[in-house]
Write a structure and sequence with these properties.
- Helix content is about 35%, strand content about 15%.
- With about 475 residues, the chain is α/β, with parallel strands linked by helices.
- The protein has a single domain, classed as TIM Barrel, CATH 3.20.20.
- The strands form 5 sheets. The protein has an 8-stranded parallel barrel with strand order 1-2-3-4-5-7-13-14, surrounded by 5 helices.
- Helix 3 packs parallel to helix 5 and helix 7 runs parallel beside helix 9.
- It comes from Liquorilactobacillus mali KCTC 3596 = DSM 20444.
- Keywords: Glycosidase, Hydrolase.
- InterPro entries: GH (IPR017853), GH_1_N_CS (IPR033132), Glyco_hydro_1 (IPR001360), Glyco_hydro_1_AS (IPR018120).
């Protein structure tokens, strides 16, 4: 009864993860409309540009490049890519459905059949190789019209548009797709609401009231998706998805300890609390006060709260790339960047080429923290190392650094399972090289599969296997025993 589990469970979902806007390309083909991701320029200043007061979602091809428009041509090469995933032995593949491929403007009543047929083919190609599709309904791909004409997720009209979108895809694919997630990294809006909420400074991103209202509207929309899915098939597994960053206080100073506790409550847990527990946490009033949000300014109805309470998620999907350190009492050297978050540098950790601190033990801590709090199955749906890969003269790509990173994190997962955590699966991010969300670069590579494309958009787009490809294949074959 109290035996320690030392192995990954049978049926563990090994696979990989992508997002439509970062790899599909064909941004204006097959009836697809533009998304907010299609307006984000390439380059290291991408987020700074999107966070500026002058940014208004306008395309300016004279000044900027837009690598998402082409992606890695997955729209036309998905069969080749899925075959490579199958060669690695994937048990599942996490991807997203581009909302504007199904509803080009977002507010139509009739979906775009050509877009649906594309995902018919993509899903069937996965099933051909016994790969379970894991679908994110909304992954930073809000139709551009909903951001420009409606002001993004702060507008309650988006609830009905999302409900229509979710109903169409769930009804179409529920007999083929068991695993779903409603919103990608929903809590990322705490620091950067551009991608998850379609809010920029010119449309109210700097007013935290708009962020909270947007969250509430998304919580209602998520609950509606859960309701629709469970009515179609009670066995569907519909999860939330958050960005999780294990957080440490810099020292034993109680002030830093409390600041770190609040950071965890507000960033790591707030959105999950609502979607998993079905109610706003007790810390909400304090958080709103600290961010100058007047609760009476929020449009939250009793019907909304009842819907949220009755339609909680089945599991928790989350991304984990790094940990963070909280220090509010003094300056301790340089800060560090990360996955939409920053903090004080941790002297005990090394960093990636892009400055993200590498903390495998932090993943084991994250798994324990989440499972202790919620007692729901967990699914690591993003994790990986963005790095610069070198192609040797013979075409080989020796990415031992990536193998080392993933190996350490898988060991941490096994440790968490021994701790008693219920872990469903693992889908490393960018299993095939794709356009970076944070910088629009191709040189920031995560994949097991190399794509011949550079930051200027030059290259053959040919696919090739890195050393990590063969390593991960053995990991899957051995169900995590051979690392």
């Amino acid at each position: 009864m109290f035996d320690i589990k030392k192995k990954f469970p049978d049926g563990f979902l090994w696979g990989g993860a992508t997002a439509a806007n970062q790899l599909e390309g064909a941004w204006d083909k097959g009836g697809k409309g533009p998304s907010i991701a299609d307006t984000l320029p390439g380059g290291k200043e991408r987020f700074a540009i999107a966070n500026s007061q002058k940014f208004n979602w306008k395309l300016d091809s004279k000044e900027y490049t837009y690598p998402n428009h082409r992606g890695i041509d997955h729209y036309y090469r998905f069969k080749e890519d899925i075959k490579l995933f199958a060669e690695m032995g994937f048990k599942c593949y996490r991807f997203s459905i581009a909302w504007s491929r199904i509803f080009p403007q977002g507010d139509e009543e009739i979906p775009n059949e050509a877009g649906l047929r594309f995902y018919d083919r993509l899903i069937d190609e996965c099933l051909k190789y016994d790969i379970e599709p894991v679908i994110t309904i909304s992954h930073y791909e809000l139709p551009l019209n909903l951001a420009k004409s409606y002001g993004g997720w702060k507008n309650r009209d988006l609830i009905k548009f999302y409900e229509r979108f979710a109903h169409v895809v769930l009804e179409r694919y529920h007999s083929k797709v068991r695993y779903w997630m409603t919103f990608n990294e929903i809590n990322s809006a705490f620091h950067f609401p551009v991608m998850s909420q379609g809010l920029v400074p010119s449309s109210g991103a700097n007013d935290f009231t708009n962020i909270v209202q947007s969250w509430h509207n998304q919580f209602v929309a998520s609950a509606l998706a859960v309701k629709i899915g469970h009515e179609l098939d009670e066995h569907l597994q519909i999860g939330c998805m958050i960005l999780y960053a294990t957080s440490y206080a810099y020292d034993a100073n109680p002030i830093n300890q409390y600041a770190n506790l609040k950071q965890m409550q507000d960033f790591n847990f707030f959105c999950a609390d609502v979607q998993v527990r079905g109610k706003y946490p007790q810390t909400t009033a304090r958080m709103l006060k600290e961010h100058d949000v007047d609760p009476t300014a929020l449009e939250i109805t009793d019907k909304d709260l009842e819907l949220i309470a009755q339609n909680t998620v089945d599991y928790i999907g989350f991304s984990y790339y790094m940990s963070r350190v909280t220090d509010v009492t003094s300056e301790h050297g340089e800060g560090v960047s990360g996955n939409l978050i920053g903090g004080v540098a941790n002297p005990f950790l090394k960093s990636s080429d892009w400055g993200w601190q590498i903390d495998p033990k932090g993943l084991q801590i994250a798994l324990n923290e989440l499972y202790d709090r919620y007692q729901k199955p967990l699914f690591i749906v993003e994790n990986g190392l963005g790095a610069k890969d070198i192609v040797e003269k013979d075409g080989a790509i020796h990415d031992d650094y990536r193998i080392g990173y993933l190996k350490q994190h898988i060991e941490a997962m096994r440790g968490a399972i021994a701790d008693g955590v219920d872990l469903m699966g693992y889908t490393p991010w960018g299993c095939i090289d794709l356009v970076s969300a944070s910088t629009g670069e191709m040189s920031k590579r995560y994949g097991f599969i190399y794509v011949d494309l550079d930051d200027e958009g030059k290259g053959t787009l040919d696919r090739s296997r890195k050393d990590s490809f063969y390593w991960y294949k053995k990991v899957i074959e051995s169900n995590g025993e051979e690392l």
